[in-house]
Amino acid sequence: MSPLDRPALRECATQAVSAVLGHPADVVVGVGSLFDLPGFDSLAVVAVLERLESDLGIEVPAEQIVPEAFESVDALTSLLVQAVAAPEVAPSAGGHA
After folding, report:
1. Domain 6-85 CATH assignment equals 1.10.1200.10
2. How many CA atoms lie within 13 A of 60 on its CB side?
């Protein structure tokens, strides 16, 4: 995947929330908190995150999946920027010796 800049990631975040909830993008961007959008609950958070991870070919570390990261499109964009910038870590083949 080629590196995406912040505006492109913000557009991806906006489109993912819009697609999952069925709200127009301008409504998603204009709301004070994503949690104020009808239907934006924990299930929607999971659906948005799965969609973004799939579309962008990334995996957001579990410790970064906190409510604050989904408070707004800008917060979600920051989460994506961190995930895209993080080096991929290969799973270890064995346990600790």
Report:
1. yes
2. 25
Type and span of the H or E element at 20: helix 6-21
Please count the other Cβ atoms lying within 10 Å of the Cβ belonging to residue 75: 17
Distance CA 13, CA 4 (A): 12
Identity (one letter) of the amino acid at 15?
Q
Give the pTM: 0.84
Identify whether the C-beta of residue 36 lies closer than 8 Å to the C-beta of residue 28: no
pLDDT of res. 97:
47
Q: Encode pLDDT of 18-39 as tens digits.
A: 999 999 999 999 998 999 999 9
Work out the burial of residue 76: count CB atoms within 10 Å of its CB; fewer than 13 is exposed, 13-18 middle, 19 or more buried: buried
In our burial notation (b when 16+ CB lie closer than 10 A, e otherwise), range 47-73 reads bbbebbeeebebebeeeeeeeebbebb
